[in-house]
Amino acid sequence: MTEPFQLAGLSLDCDDPESLARFYLGLLGGRVLWNDAHSVGIRIPSGLTIAAQHVEDYYPPQWPGTAAVHLDLAADADLDLCEQHALAVGAKTAPVQPDPRWRVLLDPAGHPFCITTRLAPN
């Protein structure tokens, strides 16, 4: 049997969808697919759709502590330069850094994401 599902996208809750979408466009590149009163969808060069969606009374997850799905981003060989780029487009450094092979950052809505040069084998 073939796989019954394909990953259609990733939705991120927030209070300001336009701002969060602009952040991910600046971080990952891509293009806007839609922009309406409740959400903004972007497609990044890898083909993944990211939807920033407004949630009333949104509060960000806490890192570490809150169970959350987060993005792991593959960086080129210079982890410091990749981290500097993420900070320049609006990321913040997470207060806890559990492993020196990864950098844990927070997007403008407070979602954690990791940058690493360590990739899973095929």
TrEMBL record:
InterPro entries: Glyas_Bleomycin-R_OHBP_Dase, Glyoxalase_6. Coiled coil: none annotated. Residues 11-116 form the Glyoxalase-like domain. This is VOC family protein. It comes from Nocardia halotolerans. The lineage of its organism: Bacteria, Bacillati, Actinomycetota, Actinomycetes, Mycobacteriales.
